[in-house]
Amino acid sequence: MVQSSKNYIDGAWIASKTRKTFVSTNPATGQVLGRFQASDERDVTAAIHAAEKAFSKWRLVPAPKRGEILLRVAQLLRAKKEEFSRLVTIEMGKVIAEGRGDVQEAIDFLEYIAGEGRRMFGYTTPSELPNKFAMSVRDPIGVCGLITPWNFPIAIPSWKIAPALLCGNTIVFKPASDTPLSALRFTELFIKAGLPKGVLNVVTGGGTAVGSPLVKHKNVRCISFTGSRDTGDWITKNAGIKRVSLELGGKNVIIVMDDADLNLAVDGVIWGGYGTTGQRCTATSRVVVHQKVKATFERMLLNRTKRLRLGNGIHPKTDVGPMINKAAIEKSQRYVEIGKQEGAKLLTGGKPIRGRGHFFQPTLFTNTTSDMRICQEEIFGPVVSLMVAKNLDHAIDLANNITYGLSSAIYTRNVNNAFTAMRDLESGVMYVNASTIGAEVHLPFGGIKGTGNGAREGGWTAIEEFSEHKAIYVDYSGTLQRAQIDV
Fold first, then answer.
1. Are residues 243 and 137 in the same domain?
2. What gap in Å lies between CA 370 and CA 395, rounded to an integer?
3. Interior CA angle at 51 toward 147 and 210, to 5°?
4. Which of 63, 455, 482 is nearest to 281 (CA)?
5. How many domains does the chain have?
6. Would you tell me how many other CB atoms lie within 10 Å of the CB of residue 52?
7. Annotated catalytic sites, by residue?
């Protein structure tokens, strides 16, 4: 019998007002994993009211005490790491090693943010007037609407939930409809850790029915969204006057110079391009190779790509798992046809695997140019395109000729090349002699240009995203002192 899950609102598991459900399935097998509430605006409104009610008390809980709850969540998750890792793989499809990485990232981030409860630093500064004290402190924003994608069903919710809670906010959380089971199991850990009712509320359902009213509601003071650029654009136009944090994907590049360790560079492209079946915002979808090593590198990369083993991610020998759903398969297939029509040369792959599950062959194009759509538009699948560059300046120009700006990398043994790339590549995350994926939790994560609106998750910047500055002046002179006048 398929289990039916409910929304979590005001400390209780309750059915949606719609009395309708949807299913989540294993993308490798088609197995139905559970039924979930197909909620609507009424459920969102109830969750917002619960979060508003809880905010008045939660904001007054000392930040170190809020951090202690997050630390308990980290400890609970660590104790259940393998169980959650398998859940991520079964529901999302990524190979089991990556499922473990997804969960470990959440553990790491929860532990990091828990400690920030004792470092919610403001500023003290001299006043321009005598007998007057000046400082700033951090206040919570209020009710936060958190909307997360399916590709990191534990890690990305942790990036948003943990700092939002630490800063004293309350939450309405809308997880992706492709991975609701992971989100609800994650929520259970917060309940077990002692989070008061109403502080974290979870509403499942589609973007139109749940996401839209959450974004538009005037009492939601903050929206944090990770997903497509089109949806991010819609949020910008419809959220109203509130804090909006957007991380909207990428079209990431690896530059391979003529002095690079080619074996290491091939490792980086394989990991970046085909890890998570290319379904990462930081996935390597473009590779710019110096003309002197293009033929050799292409041959090496093609050989490795052909050897990748496609299959159910739960099996330890699988290299590349399924895509998330049928629509993702169709999108990758559509871009393969676009690439061929544009004149790119297909070296391998390019086809879905017929039968059970959502599988698509690891795909490699060569002889591409930076104006081709396959080199400009986010495919979010296992499709990698090779371009050739005459020198470093040309390679950087090709890399930057894109509307996105999330992640970039260069493989080189030349320190001058490395520092030039660090200075000139237009991205929020940059690697030297490593792939475009693998950000660490204690540093900022986010991009520039079309990747987002300047939001940075991870590290101390996560606190910045979910708190407000309040400037405070204490005048103990006993007289009226007027700033900028009595100086």
1. yes
2. 11
3. 35
4. 455
5. 2
6. 17
7. 247, 281
Write the pLDDT tens digit of every residue in 25-43: 999 999 999 999 999 999 9
Helix spans in 80-154 (H): 81-92, 96-116
Buried b (16+ CB within 10 A) or exposed e, 192-217: ebebeebbbbbbbbebebbbbbbbbb
Residue 25: helix, strand or coil by DSSP? strand
Distance, CA of 181 to chain centre:
18
State which residues form the domain around 351.
252-432
CATH number at residue 168: 3.40.605.10
Strand-pair partners of 365: 346, 385
Band of residue 1 on the pLDDT scale cut at 50, 70, 90:
low
Instruction: Tell me how far apart the alpha carbons of residues 106 and 113 are, in angstroms, rounded to a whole number.
Output: 10
Asked if 306 and 410 sit in the same domain, the reply is yes
**Separation CA 214–CA 335 (nearest Å):** 33
Is the same domain home to 28 and 72?
A: yes
The domain that holds 275 is classified in CATH as: 3.40.309.10
- Residue 331 three-state SS: helix
Q: What is the mean pLDDT of residues 214-236?
A: 97
How far are the Cα atoms of 136, 157, 189, 204, 285 from residue 163, in angstroms, in the given order?
19, 10, 16, 21, 31
Q: Show the 3-state SS of 370-389.
A: CCCHHHCCCCCCCEEEEEEE
